[in-house]
Amino acid sequence: MLEPLFDKNCELVGWISPKEYIFDVNLNWVAYIKKNNAWSVETGNWLGPVKGLLCYDSNGKVVAWNPKEHVVGITRPTKPPKELKPPRPLRPLKPLTPTKPLRPPVPTGVWSELTFWNWLSQ
């Protein structure tokens, strides 16, 4: 099941299939998740940890979130060993456009300076 991902401005930026894949808003496969870490489909580079429905940059700052999670930062993660790219998943059916969430209460310094698109193209 796909869950929506939002940026710090509460704009829909993508979709996540927990513990498997990340898609952009047009349902293009843009990242895969292995051992709670996201990897770019395009570059093969490590993007950062994924904790539940929160996507982090390599500094432990939140890049994308889902309202089902509390937005919190994490300590700077250690880069994991490279993971093999899985086979391309089937294109999922387009979910209904979610309602724009309210901005969550977040401590200062938790949001990444990277946009979702910058994060994906590392």
Taking strands numbered 1, 2, ... along the chain, how are they ordered across the largest sheet?
A: 1-2-3-4-5-6-7-8
- CA(first)-CA(last) distance: 27 Å
Order of helices and strands: EEEEEEEEH
List the total number of helices: 1
The total number of structural domains is 1
- Inertia-based shape: globular
Low-confidence stretches: none
SSE topology sketch:
Elements: E1 3-6, E2 12-17, E3 21-24, E4 29-34, E5 37-40, E6 46-51, E7 54-56, E8 62-64, H1 116-120
Antiparallel strand pairs: 1-2, 2-3, 3-4, 4-5, 5-6, 6-7, 7-8
Textual characterization of the structure:
With 122 residues, the protein is mainly beta. It has one domain. 4% of the residues lie in helices and 30% in strands. It has 1 helix and 8 strands; from the N terminus they run E-E-E-E-E-E-E-E-H. Strands 1-2-3-4-5-6-7-8 form an 8-stranded antiparallel beta sheet. The radius of gyration is 13 Å and the shape is globular.
What is the compact description of this entry?
29% of the residues are buried. The chain has one helix at residues 116-120, and strands spanning 3-6, 12-17, 21-24, 29-34, 37-40, 46-51, 54-56, 62-64.
State the main characteristics.
8 strands, about 5% helix, 1 helix, mainly beta, about 120 residues
